[in-house]
Every structure is written in structure tokens, then in C-alpha cells.
Amino acid sequence: MAFSEKPLDQSLVTPVEEFISREFDEAVNLLGEFVSIPGIAWPAFDPQNLELSAQRVAQEFENLDFFDWVDIRKSKKPDGQLGSPAILARRAGKPGVPHVLLYAHHDVQPPGDSELWETEPFVATRKGERLFGRGASDDKAGIVTHLWAIKGLKHLAEELNLGVTLFIEGEEEAGSESFANFLIDNEKDLAADLIIVADSGNWTEEVPALTTSLRGMVSQVVTIKTLDHAVHSGMFGGPLPDAMTAMIRLLDSLTDERGDVAISGLRSTKVDELPLSEEEFRQSAGILEGVQILGSKSLVQQNWGEPAVTVIGIDAPTVALSSNTAQPEITAKISLRLSPDENPATGLDLLRKHLESHAPFGARVSFGHSEQGPGYLAKSGWASKLAHEAFSACWPNPSVNIGIGGSIPFITDFARVFPQAEILVTGVEEPDSRAHSPNESQHLPTLKRAMAAETLLLLHGNQLLTNELN
Ligand SMILES: [Zn+2]
To answer: How many angstroms separate the alpha carbon of residue 200 from the centre of ligand 1?
Structure first.
């Protein structure tokens, strides 16, 4: 549904900021309580903690006295086993008013090497402007953001019109295996005009962002064969087209001399240019001094909008077991990142065509296992305009659109099941949050701003009507 496009009511900003400021200590305390429950959806960890975590989160949303119902539900994974507990709650809105789905996840990454943590991972510890702990940012701060946005809506709206669904997943960090079934099992309860996914980041501590693109990916196992058996490299070497040399040449053909992907026909998507210095990129990627950066476009364009190819595995004799033998066949696995709007089936097809047509010496090429994951490119509609206005009102700088070089498959699941809905990928992280790493922390001023901005979004949405009714 399309909704009236009114600019953000700026008179809401001060009351919202005052409400969030008054409530903020309580929000940080609750975030600390959430951090103390180590709900991890990986098989090696006690699933009981996920049950406790789901109950604790559900209780907070029940206490709001806002939703028509609050449930804990599970769906089956593809292997038939039940997935982790998710919290689902829904409040029906008035006719013609937007229905908003708020998504976050309550499971967390394992703590990793405890030696590398400077605080206890599951004891929230405040140091300066940050709250340290596993999940403090990813994504328990996302849950707290949704909770206080609803509190703010209840407190500040003259009447409650907006429809709201809450969906707090319990296995995002373990690959969201039951997610696709959960969407099918609960399609009616999840249906919304706007989906807010609070699980991403901001450009910096001071610059808010909407995540508007994610690259897709495909992978392909490829085998190249030149001989029907292994032979002595001295007795035959010279005229002999061995499979290792053929594979090296084939893999080399995937990029050109500048490092750009040389597979013809692949798309590229123009992304918004943002300042990212070569030094910052080199440092975060750990590129050694003197080693060159590849590609002919800007760093953000290449990382978010262009295809990228990586050879991620080769089956070949190890150096320790090597002998003077020419190899008859070699297998490699190629990972190809795709521009956000590339169809993965097309990407895979173009990769295969390239491999077949570039095999040197007439070598035989055959394909093994492949994978496909779609990318994501946000539609820009009423909600993204509004989100930029709300972010810009709550941060010291205007908000920007950012991309992610990797993929978040569940976002494309949302887009597939709810094609009419606008999706906003927001978040409470910033470059120093260290999600998934030791010493994860939430930058508290960012959390406060995110809470205020989402409250503004809900309050504004609460006043909207569909264009059809205007
Ligand atoms: Zn997350």
C-alpha cells in the first residue's frame, strides 16, 4: 500500500528526545539483563538459554500492555527439527493506517576466545560511552530499540492507530534455518506494509545510515581434467598439458590485470559514494604495506556495487605429499559476489560460461556443487524518506545510504514473501561495535539516537493514511 508522503513533523522531535532521555538508564539496565542470558543457537550450546532468553524478552513486550497477543513460536528447519524460539506479537491497527513489522534477534554469537575479552562476555560492563558484552549491540540493542519505540508511541500518541507486529528471531547467528518456514507458518500474523530490520549499522558514531544494498553470491565447484592418469613430470613434462597449470590459467582469467572481474555480462549497481580512505580500508582488512589494492573503481563502489571473485578452495596435493607427478585433474571452489540487483541464476550461468570458454589447452571442464543467494536493493518509498528525516533529526549529521559487501539471506526472504512491503534495514551498530568479535560493545549515544529515531517513525506512521483513503 502507498501512504501519504508528509514530511516528518519536526514538533515531535523534542518531546521524543526528552522521553528517551528520561527512560534511557532503564533501557541500558534492561539491555544489561538481556546480555546476562547467553542464548546461542549453535548446536554445541545449551538450548535452554534460548528458551530463557525468549521468555525474558516476551515478558517485556507483554508488560507493555500494547499487543493483542504475545507468543513464543517455533518452526521446522529443513531437516525437520524444530528451530529456536522466536517471539511474535501483533496489535491490529485501524483500517487504512500502516502496519509495521519490527524485527530483531535475541540469539547471539558464541563468545569466542575468552582470553581476548577484556570484560566478562555475559556480564554487561559499562566503560565510558559503551556497554560491553556479547549481544550488547548485535542484536539485543535492536530489541531494546523496538521496545522503547513502542513505549514512546504509547506515551506520546494522542490515539493509537498504527498496526504493529513484533518478530524477534532466535537463530539469526546460526543461519536462520527455520526462518523461511516461519514466514510461511505465520504469514498472516507477519503481514505488514513496512518491515523495520534493526540488525545493521551506521556509517560512523556520528553519521546515521540506512542499509540499502546487499550483494548476492554464488559459488561453484569446478574440476578441470587434461589427462586420464597421473604421469611422471620429468618423463612427460614439456609437451604435457597438466591440470594444475590449466587450472591456474583458468582461475587467473577470472580477473583482469587491474583486478576487476573479467566475467563478461555481469551487472554492476551504482552505489552512493561515501568517503572511505585507502588507509582505513587497508587497516581494517589487514593489507600488508606495499601490497596493492585491486580494481579500477572507488572502494565503496567495488565493495558494495561490483562483482568480486575469490577462489576459496583447491583440492590438490599438499606440498608435504608432493612428488614429481603431473596432475591429471584439479578441483577448485569459486565464490562470486554479485552486484545487489543481479539475478543469482544469471550470475551462476555467466560464471559457468566463462569457465567453459576460458579453459586452456582444450582441457575438460565439469561442474560440481553450486550455491545461489540473492542480493538486496532497497526500494525507495515513503518509509525510507521518512527514516532519513528521522535519523537526520536525531544525529548530529544527515543520514546516508550504505551497502554491505556480504549477504543477509533473511532480508531477501522477507522481500520474497512480502513483495508489497517496504523494508528498512536500520541498526544500532557502528564501526567500533565489534559484533561477532571479542569485546563487542554498544555505543550508548548511538543507541539513544536509534531509539528516538524509531519512536519518531512510529509516531509519524501512526498519523498516516493510505493514499486511497485520502
Ligand atoms: Zn545481528
So the answer is: 7
Asked whether residue 390 carries a pLDDT value surpassing 90, the answer given is yes
Ligand 1 centroid–CA 99 distance in Å is: 23
How far does the centroid of ligand 1 lie from the alpha carbon of residue 427, in Å? Answer: 9
C-alpha grid cell for residue 240?
604435457
How much is the pLDDT for 469?
46
CA–centroid distance, 110 to ligand 1, in Å, is 12
pLDDT of residue 284: 82
Residue of 166, 185, 153 lying closest to 77 (CA atoms): 185
The CATH code of domain 216-271+294-373 reads 3.30.70.360
In sequence order, which residues have a C-beta less than 8 Å from that of residue 79 and are 6 or more positions away?
177
- Reported as type and span, the H/E element at residue 332 is strand 329-338
Q: Are 3 and 467 in contact (CB under 8 A)?
A: yes
Cell triple for 166: 513484533
Fold topology of 10-213+375-469: Aminopeptidase (3.40.630)
Q: Give ∠ CA 7-377-345 in degrees, rounded to 5.
A: 160
The pLDDT assigned to 423 comes to: 95
